[in-house]
Amino acid sequence: MVERLDATARAGLAEGLPHWTLVEGRDAIRREFRFRDFSEAWGFLCRVALLAEAQDHHPEWSNVWNRVEILLSTHDAGGLSERDVRLARSIDALLG
Amino acid sequence: MVERLDATARAGLAEGLPHWTLVEGRDAIRREFRFRDFSEAWGFLCRVALLAEAQDHHPEWSNVWNRVEILLSTHDAGGLSERDVRLARSIDALLG
């Protein structure tokens, strides 16, 4: 069982992950990304897929041509956990 | 400009693409796919990405672990066109 983020961790989310926003009506965070075209978006998706497998934690995500939306939440925890924070940080790091 | 499907083409959709359904409130078709795990789903997504680039026609799609949803519609036509039918057929062919 994975534990949900405690109050201290939640208080630090906005500062630690400034590009991610809380999802309305769900214990999750999301971020939108925009690229030059599908090719660039797909390259990014591939890199995130590698991160997801390495961390054994997978996003809910969608793509429409050059746009990507990623939502993170931990099914086993019933909401946000350290796994989401870790994956979000790794995704942000891809963008430099 | 790409032309929207005419009445004859639309009448043949259900028979030609039996796994795809019309989307409520939008001129589009969709299909859901389920795989053993993320790895298998991702392999499928990669193959569809190659089709999309080859046909210069891209899906609106989402993935949650072993589940994939693909929606097809043609932006330039403001709805369903031959491009969607072609891509749907190619996607179906991947699954044998």
TrEMBL record, chains A, B:
Q: CDD domains from the entry?
A: PCD_DCoH_subfamily_b
Q: Name one GO molecular function term.
A: 4-alpha-hydroxytetrahydrobiopterin dehydratase activity
Q: What does the UniProt keyword field contain?
A: Lyase
Looking at its record, which EC class is this enzyme?
lyase
Which Pfam family, any one, appears in the UniProt record? Pterin_4a
Q: Which domain of life is it from?
A: Bacteria
Recorded hits in SUPFAM superfamilies, A to Z, give:
PCD-like
Spell out the PANTHER family in the cross-references: PTERIN-4-ALPHA-CARBINOLAMINE DEHYDRATASE
- What's the protein here called? Putative pterin-4-alpha-carbinolamine dehydratase
